[in-house]
Batch of 2 targets.
Target 1
Amino acid sequence: MRRTRAAMLTATALAGVLALAGCAKDSGGGTSSNNASGNTGSCVTSQAPAAPAAATSSSSAGAKVDASSLRIGLAYDIGGRGDASFNDAAAAGVDKAKQDMGVKDVSESTASPTEDEAAKEQRLTQLATGGYNPIVAVGFAYAEAVGAVAPKYPNTKFAIVDDDSVTAPNVTPLVFAEEQGSFLAGVAAVYKSKSCHIGFIGGVNTPLIQKFEAGYLAGAKAASSKVQIEDQYLTPAGDNTGFQDPTKGNAKAAAEIAAGADVVYHAAGASGKGVFQAAQAGNALAIGVDSDQYNQQTVAQYKDVIMTSMLKRVDVAVYDYIQAVATNNLTTVPKRFDLKVDGVGYATSGGKIDDIVPVLQGYKQAIISGQITVPTTPAK
Amino acid sequence: MTSWRTKVLPPLLAIVFSLLICSIALLISGSDPLQAYWTMLRQLGQGTTAVDTVNLATVYYLSGLAVAIGFQMNLFNIGVEGQYRFAAVWAAIIGGALHLPPVLHVVVIIIVAVAAGVLYAAIPAVLKVTRGVSEVISTIMLNSIVGGIVAFLINPDQFGVLTGNNLRTQVIDPSGRIPGIPIGDASLFGFVFIAAAIGLAYWFMLNRTRFGFELRASGESTTAAAAGGVNSKRMTLIAMLLSGGVAGMVALPELLGRDYTYAITSTQGYGFTGIAVALLGRNHPGGIALGALLWAFLDKSAVSLEQVHVPKEIATIMQGAIVLSVVVAYEVVRRADLAAAQRRVGRALSGGRPASVAEGGAI
């Protein structure tokens, strides 16, 4: 009898766990305040590189590409469409392809948080046998699966975001120079900090997020020799909850702001919402990541503290890739989406960094020309 | 002795009930339940899904056994999750670093994994026996700690290797792998047989040895067992360590049969699934095997369902519904059986008259 009851309790607890796992934490509220100021802080100690004379990055609108015959398979990482992060960015790329290139048939499939490796292979295999071509795998967690499935379907084209370790001839890596975009975010943070004290919040302490951290630290130090930097991660490698925990993001960001930081940059996916909330409550500024978060619906209530966003154009990469497949010329896909091809960059929505755009353009030019090399691992 | 009804009826009832719940969920979400169920069945014939299901079930089976050993002693070892990950990372590190002849290499890796699992289970076991700390609390905490340990160990500064954007341990030499059995395109884990042997050993230990009897006796009632001369503290300690040892092997089918390395992207959560599987299987080695297969089948369905645009969460709903309804169904059938037995006894005692309530008859 006692054991039956224990079993029942266990079952109930388990059901609770299952239910909890399905819910993302959400935190709302926070008071509205506006502390944006356009004045350059006294933190800057270095002379910015000269800005290029005129903007030359005008992308020429080429001939209209028809991709209506393509059937695109999209395998998302955990979170999928609607994660307000890189899955969503990939989705945006495909949506744009639907609009511009007439793509009609798109099959999307999303990874479960606790699925095994075989499930990823199953997902890709089902897309491939279903006739989808090309197939885009979103996230480096698919590296093993793409490496296993792609050779079995040599006539199907695969692309994988954030990984360049797969060497099969029919696999196109879509990788980014996150450190370069983050470098500019670091420069912007220094220019906008009044206390000469800035912060970084990483979602999960993985090599990928360390590239954001490394670039940000390097950029900040390049602009100022006296800047103080708070630098924290939400969870250790392997614990992906760091990308989906706004409460934790809020707590850590609030701690950094309490320590004196007044500009906080996050590379923490959906946890970033908590960072924005903390910035709003603590009269600080925040820098978004991946997409132009100033214009993002899910964090619209905090837009007044989002001074800029480090753009990682997964959408552009996916779009370019589809276009390249449609025109049957994969050589047009850049080896790495960096500042030069506008694969990474910064957002100016909201106008809070309009005054320092020449400075950022100068640094951008210096990185493109190779004058500045940005490290990909944080200097400790 | 329990009748066939108490054994076969509850799981069948539970599955029917959860199908019902899922049909409602499917209808509400605007999908066709029949099409969804057909897709789930049909996937078994597609590609490698059937073999993948058995492979995954092997992992769940070991995890379920580990939990069940604890249940026998009335221990709720939630720590299987932490124990298997701790064991997996050490087995992968040491297996990747060593270069040994075939067979021996595999044996060493298995021993390392079991030892690591035992070690990590020893912490809550010793705390429980010496200080009376609830194993539920301590294992939950240890589960949380293991994430940090794994992250630390797979760091390139320690034993990790950076591959693309992923971090992993050294790849294990071919000598340290267990060859799979090729079935069509797929490959069945060789570890399936080791898992089956462990299941047999578990059954034998429980039903055919003095130790197993003492374990079950102390699980039913520590005081009664103590009166019979069983040292319950010793039983608690051994049960927990055994549970940890089996937990240590949970990741081995994948590690030695497919991945050959442990990465930060390696799957987590097998330990928690083991709890559900042990519950489904009523701690019986055969039942756990069926539970593991069912759970793995539903997991695989999630991927297939998305291909026909049915939300994959349906599979999760079905898993939750089955666990809940299995427990409820067993209880309902058990009570019905008990009442029937009481009536029988009552009738026999009263010489054919219907038994009165006081004698245990029906009200």
Note: Confidence is low (pLDDT under 50) at residues 15-39, 56-60 of chain A.
Target 2
Amino acid sequence: MGAPAPYVELHAHSAFSFLDGASTPTELAGAAAALDYPALALTDHDGIWGSMEFAHACKGLGVRPITGTELTVALKVEADRVELAHLTLLVESAAGYRNLCRLLTDAHSHTRDGAQRNAGQPWVSLEALFERADGLICLSGCAREGVLAARWERGEHALGAKLGRELRGAFGAECLRIELQRPYERHDRARNRWLSGLAERLGVPCVASGNVHFHRRSRSRLQDAFVAVRHGVGLDESEPLRRGNSSAALASPQAMAARFAEYPEAVAETARLAERLRFDLTAELGYTYPGAEDVGADRELAETCRALLAERYAGSSNRLEAERRLEEEISVIRGLGLSGFFLLHRDLLELAREVAVKVRGPSSVRALLPPGRGRGSSVSSIICYLTGLSHVDPVKANLFAGRFLNEEVAAVPDIDLDFPRDIREQLIPEVHRRYGAERSALVAAFPTYRPRGVVRDLGKALGLPPGEIERVAGMVGFHERSGEIERDVIAAIGKQRAAAPRWAALLSLCPDAMGLPRHASQHPGGMVISTKPLIDVCPVVPAAMAGRQIVQWDKDSCADAGFLKIDLLGLGMLSAVERTVVEIERARGERVDLSRIALDDRETFESIRAAETTGVFQIESRAQMQMLPRTLPQDLDDLTVQVALVRPGPIQGGAVHPYIERRKRLRENPNYEVPYEHPLLEPVLKDTLGTIVFQEQVIEVAMQFAGFSSSEAEGLRRAMSRKRSEEAIRKHREGFLAGAAGKGVPLELAERVWEQIKGFSGFGFPKAHSVAFGLLAYQSAYLREHYAPEFLCSLLNEQPMGFYPPDSLIHEAQRRGVRVAPVALSQSGVQCHIERQQGALAVRVGFAYVKGVREGEMAELVGERERGGPFESIADLASRSGVSREGLERLAWAGALDGFAQEDSEAGGGRREDYWRLVVAGSSQATGTGKQLPLPLDSPTAPALEPLGRWEKVIEDYRSTGINLGEHPMALLRGEIGDGVARSSDLSEIEDGATVEVAGMVVARQRPETAKGIVFVLLEDERGTVNLVVPPAVYERYRALVRAAPLLHAGGRLERREGTINVVVEEVGTLEWSGRPQGEVRRIEPQGGRDPDHAKGGEMSFAARRARELAVAELRAVVPAGHSFGRRGR
Amino acid sequence: MSQARRINAPKETRVEVGPEGTPLGLGGTAIESIREEWVIEDRWWTEGPLHRHYYELALADGRNVTVFRDVRAARWYRHSA
């Protein structure tokens, strides 16, 4: 490096200005380093969302980060209008940082005031700003909307000068600078002449700035498109809103000096200011652990825990070991100053208990269950067990707290708690109330651009036809790389259209847009709690959900800031399990205490080993089902490994196949000796047969094998669990190889073990977490096995959750003999429930499954039925239920009113009649609103209407409820698809390697990132399911079909492996049939009197063919779309 | 028959430039000062993308003229208004 940089950029936006910036903070930092900037300021709009990431990225590259924001202020507030403008604030001192945080908190405080809580524009009043000027440098803002420039723009020169004087009064000549920008807009020179004249009159220096919006010129197009997206208009209409050119790129200090050649002092001032701005966000936050100031905390925690231990381990053989552990943990916690934090946790849990009692009701069988359960590494701590944070006895489960707590921890441990959803919903606002709005907040999350969002948002901005956009959006996958999108575009709209300038422009924007944050949202449950005001360390802003607020940092930034984080997570399966227990009591009068069920139930384990696990927590996925018959879990310990095994970490680390293989060998030969890479690894990898399955095994291997200290090893684990850590991982590698060499491990072997660790870096469970999840998997499998109807009922009520859509859950349960009854006016409740039918239990589908009805209306309907007795006719229903006409029509189409039909009830054909009656009632009794059907009336006899055909009924069921309880579509098509197509139930009779054809409805599609382009498809026919494995080459050939077709016909090779059957696909087609389907295909149209399928003769008429195409198209539109496994569940 | 013409359509013009591309003269008339200078990069998503570098010039003969350089075509145009 030569002479000191002539210019430092003090005004830059990243993508955390949300659709007003087109580079990440890390990209800006990288470009600044490459251009030899000594320092760079990040000044996103009304937030410091990206500032922590920016600060760390800059420091890693030798650029000094300057923290700031471009704040929106109200120049004038009138009843119905606020006049807003911008100014730039830069942090000079810790006091200034506190003021910035409070200003930003203030700016956002009113942003969710509307009834809908839609995000509004943040702003603060000038008075509020002036009160918090201390420690901040104020630049007068950007060329278009800066507080002074905007006045000039409107010709309000005197007002501008007055405001300048006010700013000078508040910030002083030391801390106010008049900002000059050169965006290459028409009036730059005139504006800067006026601003510099004003500066002279005020006796304040000018400072140059670039108003950077992207780190290199090529991003200017994306910036243009983002502006259009932000304003909800097309690029064609947004010209005045856009920047107009690419000059908002980060340019070199020299180029910037040249750009401001007329104002050399303003250029020099940038460097002088930068010298003054030495506040370091990474070191001067001033955050302390909650409770750290409480001097009595150490003693209180110790006494509380000792008393609890005496109670919990009374008479236990583990008592001595438990005491030893407790004293050890207490001393570590004391050393770390964390006693107050653990007490805070205990309080929080007490709060959760109170909330749970309120939500569940005191006498519910749910009251037997703890309010929530620990997950993650906290489960290994005995203090967490004693205070109720965890329900797993770590002594009994042989868990060690080393990863959670050790004397060297550089970062504080997270505590994760799972709650049933309903309890969590209440608990979060309750926590805000208990600890105060200034002291607790949720962690932010930043949804980033994925392929589908890019196509939709940017496609609209580019003015592409909505039809085309949707076709392409339907084709692109969630995990797709940008290079693959072009093929999807071509597949969806053809090569010629894909080459049109606007589509080409979209394709060129894709790689840049992907991964950029689109807006701020809330983390599912991460909470930061502080005993000092949180708004002094990070801005706190209202969240979209009422009663919730978020800090401006995501979990990585919160961890960097050293915040103690508590994760309050809603876990659908916990809710479902609780619902099941309640439903069992209701239906059978039996009180099941899940904490006391046998943990070695033979039938439960048999079902698990047979992969009969649809709906079971964690082990229901297709990959798990393929694994279970091979690993054959025998007990809870095996399940603990099982839930951890099918994760990206163990898969990429190469643990899966050795583990399966070694288990098999051990089963066959109990004397089999597990091969360890090195004797040093045996003690840490014994439980998992020499493979790395759990997250803490990475730590243990690093310590045992490479001599890492526990904090070094923890550093390695943290580096692996983050996105932005390649560099850090490389450094750990050197340490690892050197450490292993020190222990006498040959280099080649050390490298091999490192590769396993590195492969693991994707994601893995800590063992303690797996213990908790394994137990929940067992409990859910137990309920599924012994209380099948109640379990299914609860899953249906707790949707969305798990891997399978409700339709598949129902079909699978039906195949096991579970009765499911359709939604019906006189029996259904709002939710699904259990009822007795001729002595047997059946699941009655609730009104909530009818699409388009309002839950409130359905609750009223049920209430009226309970008060006033059953509805006697449609007219009675219409007058008493209070349900809108649309609601009633939807009920009619869903078949809920079938009981009123006088004929054709067996085919569901009464629906037409019901509908007819509704229409008649509606048209003759129309009221003022036109929505209600208030008067009872005797409707005339319905004319003879065709009942719904079988196929129509399937379509109608899917359309109106998303589930089909009657005939499977494949049963209707079976006779027509040729004899060569095997049923799912036939596959067990077919030999390995044989060529087979199968067909069915697509239940799930999955293209895991770990599977090298292989796509897994689960088909369902009338007998069961078929696993398809679609190799990449075949996928490429049939991309559109594999992706989007609701019904598939596939040919390939049958592959049988230890209890699993797959079809490795070679060819894919849509379903075709040679003649008429058994189900009659008709359109539901009033004028459609003629049944096209009754056309005589061998040839199908055009009309008949057309009707069938329509029927398939209808099915496509209404069947539940098979989804990507990767997106749901945990 | 002459076709309808756009009013105020820019006309190609001759501009003398200095070594850094800054205009020095317009059709032989010296330039006294550059009053404003701005850049438009637009319509990149269409078949007719724009990239223009505009100058508002005060000429030695007292006229004010706006010219632009079409960066893609490397030609100068003058706005008649």
Note: Chain A touches chain B through 22 residues (CB under 8 Å).
